[in-house]
Amino acid sequence: QVQLQESGPGLVKPSQTLSLTCTVSGGSITTSYYYWSWIRQPPGKGLERMGAIAYDGSTYYSPSLKSHTSISRDTSKNQFSLQLSSVTPEDTAVYYCHLITLGGNYWGQGTQVTVSS
């Protein structure tokens, strides 16, 4: 059973960079046809897929966030990470890491990030 766990600061100041890491257990981030995403949910709003990194290291970003989003991975630690630069209070949300496979999908428990001075 694949498990995902988000980690990172819960409070970020405006204009700074938000950095989150997802640690994966029970499966490898290089397993073929595994796609690893970051998804967020602002308060009172729906889920937004921010971007993804595939098993081969290729990346996809939401067009609306592409200019200030970066997703990377560390295969030695079986982790993938999100960096969101120049954050504003509108980036306040619960951030989830997520896995899609041919056999189903898996979620981390989510981590609250608040952007505030």
Jot down its keywords.
4-stranded antiparallel beta sheet, 7-stranded mixed beta sheet, 117 residues, mainly beta, 11 strands
In short:
The chain has 117 residues and is mostly beta strands.
List the helices and strands and how they pair.
Elements: E1 3-7, E2 11-12, E3 18-25, E4 35-41, E5 48-54, E6 59-61, E7 69-74, E8 79-84, E9 93-101, E10 104-107, E11 111-115
Parallel strand pairs: 2-11
Antiparallel strand pairs: 1-3, 3-8, 4-5, 4-9, 5-6, 7-8, 9-10, 9-11
Total number of helices: 0
Radius of gyration: 13 Å
Mean pLDDT: 97
Q: Low-confidence spans: pLDDT under 50, at least 5 residues?
A: none
Taken in chain order, the helices and strands follow as: EEEEEEEEEEE
Quick one: how many beta strands? 11
Structural class: mainly beta
| Strand coverage percent | over 45%
Largest sheet: 7 strands, mixed
Fraction in helix: under 10%
- Coarse shape: globular
Distance between the termini: 39 Å
Tell me what you see in this structure.
Strands 2, 4, 5, 6, 9, 10 and 11 form a 7-stranded mixed sheet that branches. A 4-stranded antiparallel sheet has the order 1-3-8-7, with no helix packed on it. It contains no helices and 11 strands. The chain is 0% helix and 53% strand. The model has no long low-confidence stretch (mean pLDDT 97). It has 117 residues and is mainly β. The relative contact order is 0.32. The radius of gyration is 13 Å and the shape is globular. The protein has strands at residues 3-7, 11-12, 18-25, 35-41, 48-54, 59-61, 69-74, 79-84, 93-101, 104-107, 111-115.
